[in-house]
Amino acid sequence: MLDDKKDDIFLSRWINGELSEEELREFQSHPEYKHYTKIMAGADALNLKEYDVEKELAALKSKQRNEPIKKAGSIVKLWPYFAAAASIAIILGLFLFNSGESFSTTYGEQLTVTLPDGSEMILNAKSNAIFDKKKWDDNRLVNLDGEAYFKVKKGSTFTVATKNGDVTVLGTQFNVQSQNAFFEVRCFEGKVSVLNKNHKEILTAGKAYRNLENNIPEQWTFTTQQPSWLSNTSSFRSTPIKYVFKELEEQYDLKIKSPSIDLETMYTGTFPNNDQEVALKTVFSTLGITYSLSQDGKTVVLEK
């Protein structure tokens, strides 16, 4: 475990992005790192839908007032730095303890999850999903942060909720990608309803919808039978290269430094998710960018 006298302050610094590069790398090699990233990523993926934060916090504070307080000194010292993050962690902890199921993937990883009704969810790299198993029969809801492919059994309404928009179906196969301000949905079978910033669209098989950074949404048709990433290939259609670089980072656990590169440059193409050298050469040669790797192989420096 982390040092009990320092772990709370250390974690608050990590959440607030205040660790040095050396501290962060050391923490990332710690066996508990994945556990903490899963908790915080899960809090983001939860998106607080179907959960009354104020009500739960009020109940928790009421309970604390009626019980003996332990180690109050350390809590008081930490509160100014850790209040918001602690609230999220508490709510997430209560949710998962009561009825939640949480799943996450790390760099270059895929994970197949069988949902309570037999539907299937496949998570792409660096993605997180949470659902309420006890309420599943009445409310088939998955909170997603990242990218996932769904094969949904016919039944009641099935909803994938993200911070960028919601996708609702009855029974179908579709792919959802929601990362930062990137939101894309592809329907491979049946029909899906997409709600994005109060804008609703119905997609049938072979139709795709995308909204980048809350700009004008776009739609197009495609002929593939499943997402390319299920076959270990990342593909892009007229996508700003900052999202392509982000995908490279998530597939290969890299940090890409691009101080002189126009990150809004559009990219159409693919790269393999199981061969880093080929992936880097494919993307950067297409863009006419020179790159070099750091000595530890974890940082890519770009030059135009």
Automatic annotation (TrEMBL):
Lineage of source species: Bacteria, Pseudomonadati, Bacteroidota, Flavobacteriia, Flavobacteriales
Protein name: FecR family protein
Transmembrane segments: 78-97
Gene3D superfamilies: 2.60.120.1440, 3.55.50.30
Protein FecR C-terminal domain ranges (all copies): 235-301
Origin superkingdom: Bacteria
Domain FecR protein stretches: 104-192
Sorted UniProt keywords: Membrane, Transmembrane, Transmembrane helix
Matching InterPro entries: FecR, FecR_C, Ferrdict_sens_TM
GO molecular function list: sigma factor antagonist activity
